[in-house]
Amino acid sequence: MLLNKPYDVLCQFTDAAGRPTLANLLPLPDLYPAGRLDRDSEGLLLLTGDGRLQQRIADPAFKLPKTYLAQAEGIPDAAALEALRRGVLLHDGPTRPAQARAVPEPAWLWPRLPPIRERRLIPTAWIELTLTEGRNRQVRRMTAAVGHPTLRLIRVAIGPLRLGDLQPGQWRAATAQELAALDRAQRL
To answer: Domains of the chain: which residue ranges?
Structure first.
C-alpha cells in the first residue's frame, strides 16, 4: 500500500496522547509501515503486511535508495551541495555519500497546513536528496550541517516506488509491476 503521509501524522496506528496517526487515514487492518517518516515530514510511505518486505525496506543494509525534496533555508551554493554528495559528519558519524541537487519548487506541490515559517529577508530553495541509509532525522541533520536547515521535507520515492499524484492522506495499492520492480531493486 502506498500512502501520502500528511504533515503532523504519526507513523504508527495508536498514540496515547491522541495525536493523529495512520489509523485516521487507513481503514485496512494488518498493515505496518515499512520505514518511517517523522511527524513533521510528509510524503511516500509504504505499508505492508509482509514482515520480510517491511524489514528489507527499513534495513539500511539493503541500501534501497529513498528520495526526498527538502525546502531549505537560504540558497545552497555548489560547495554545500558537494558536501551533501560526499557525505557530512553528524554526531553519530559520517553519512554515506548522497545524490544532491538544487531543483525548482515542484509545480505539483500541495500547500502545507500550517505553512512553514517564512522570513522576509531569508529566501528558501529546494534540494532533491537521495539517500541509501535512514538515520533518525537524517535529511534535516545533513542540510543543517551544511548551513541550510530543512523547513519542509517530502519523501517522493522509495526505490522504484514513486509518490506520483497521491494527495496528502490518499493511498492506493501497489501494482504488480511496482512490487516486481521493488523486488528487483532489493536484490541489487
So the answer is: 1-63+160-188, 65-158
